[in-house]
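Structure ticket #2291
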Amino acid sequence: MGLRGGRRTRNRYVQHVIPRRAAADLGVGTGVGIFSGAFGVGGGITLVPFLVLVRKIPQKQAQATSLVMVAMAAAAGAVRYAVNGDVAWWPGLFIVIGGFAGAWLGAHLVQRSPGWLLQSLFGIMVIIAGIRMLGLAGVPEAPVSHLEDPTVGLIAGYVAAGLGMGLLSALFGIGGGILLVPILVALFDYTQHLAAGTSLAVMVPIALVGAIRLTKPGLTKWADGARYGVGAMVGALIGASLALLLSGGVLRGLFGVLMLLVGAQMGWKAWKSRPRAE
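Resolution: structure written out below.
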């Protein structure tokens, strides 16, 4: 009876619990994808807390697994922006070059650095960038003038931006768009739509490098990430389509508020996890 009872319990779990969880994960992925496509970010900033707090997955494993979903969502969102002409391709190439280096370095550091310190620095940086984005919300957007005129200075700037994006991607399991979008808007005078589309396009290979790099230590769970990613791809198409209907000023304001909330959340988590003196 015990053996048969155990089999019946396992069968009920397979027939009922697993399908419900899979459907819930697809729904979560769709919501994260809408967020990703609308703002040009990876969505890991929302998925990682869900994996840790709800699914009870260890922090580093959640971050690595999130990168799989980030790559899938970014690919779908980038296609939508590209159709609208809102992807800067040659700058994206140099951002990716810097991003590869940053993702490799970040994947190395994530296993050795104190998380509370990294979160503190990240939170402060995001809050500053959010304030800057809010200040730009009312500034009229103009076409970017330097896209057809690459210079050594611009190329170096794009590589540096990619380096920072790749670092964040691997260190925190996010796409890095939360940093790249404000950089492109504030320092390179991109429109909000062009910054979001370019961010998503370069995010795909950068996130994949981070996920691959973290596979060897057993942190990246590809099947789990892909399950969320399927829903995220649908959501990213929806989010990008909605964003293209809104003005750049409105999106900048919303993005600025988002960054303040994210920065505050990261700072609070860092404060709670800091080492305490005995």
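Closing remark: The chain has a mean pLDDT of 82.
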